[in-house]
Amino acid sequence: MQTILQYLMPILLILFILYRRIRRSIGFQFFQSRKLIFRIAILSIVSLFLLGASATHPNSYWYDIAGIILGLILTRYAIRHSLFEVRQGKLFYRTHIWIEFLTLVLFLSRFAYRLTYLFTATAANSSSDPSMYSQQFTRDPSTRAVFFILAAYFISYYSFLLKKGKTFTVEKNADLIFEK
Predict the structure, then answer these.
(1) This prediction's pTM
(2) What is the spatial distance between Cα 101 and Cα 96, in angstroms, rounded to a whole number?
(3) I want to staple 141 with a disulfide (CB 3.0 to 4.6 A). Which of 27, 63, 86, 170 is the partner?
């Protein structure tokens, strides 16, 4: 019984986190500048730590740079296809459905891959050094590239939203207002 709970609790927690992530990624989202600023700060701090960790493996900077460039390209496309809507005096935003889908697939695929790796590596090497797994995160080029794609995308897109959120005006009887 305890073994089942040992696996069930983390799985339920992960499923809850994934549910919230999916719900937050699809459809119109309520504009909250504090949440956007907080997310930008967290992503920036983690990105700086990972860039600092790249110093031990200088070749990983190429994956970091590639991820950042791809994230900025994705942001450019997202900005061109962003929609804003005012509902009952509150601002909502969304980007193109395919961009939302792509970022979700990137996140979930790397998440699933890392979980699979975690369970297979732990089962195969249950007596090995636990620090080996944490070092794998800084060495894995695809995980780093995907992280920097998502980090560059979200940091730059949230910055765009903060900038545009300030330029919105709400007129009476208007559903969609966007000043360029």
Answers:
(1) 0.75
(2) 9
(3) 63
